[in-house]
Amino acid sequence: xxxxxGAAMVAAAVVIFIIQPVAKxxxxxxxxxxxxxxxxxxxxxxxxLALRDVEYDFLAGKLDENDYRSLKGELTAEALAALxxxxxxxxxxxxxGSEDVEAEIRAIRLGLHEGSVPCPDCGYVNVTxxxxxSACGHSLQAGVAG
Length: 146
Ligand SMILES: [Zn+2]
Description:
This protein is mainly alpha-helical. The chain folds into two domains: 2-114, no CATH class; 116-146. 68% of the residues lie in helices and 4% in strands. The chain is built from five helices and two strands, in the order ααααββα. The chain has a two-stranded antiparallel sheet with strand order 1-2. α2 (39-59) packs parallel to α4. The chain is globular and about 50 Å long. The chain starts with a helix and ends with a helix. The structure holds zinc ion. Zinc ion is lined by residues 119, 121-122, 124, 133, 135-136, 138. Zinc ion (ZN) binds next to loops.
């Protein structure tokens, strides 16, 4: 029990740690205002980016499975909540089906799990089928064949 609580607290701290710099990045790009990001869109983006980072870190071996699972659970919940809020905000102007929400999450997951090969040497995430790391040139075959 205590162990679980401790792990959950660490996970929460890491989530905050991960989200903060991303949130600042979003904020910075918000000031450029390429395409008007609403508050809910920004929140959604932060959550999805954080979720992606967790996936990358796990694939790159930087997170152990426990951390990965709790982080992913928290971030998925946050992403879904943000997507829902965004959808509600949009529904006042246009119409967005709830399928879009799930499709978006699914696309990210598929892209990460089936469309990427993390470099065993530097951690760079390469496209599936790559034989060598685009970042450092390390052979990806050796790492994959396990
Ligand atoms: Zn590499």
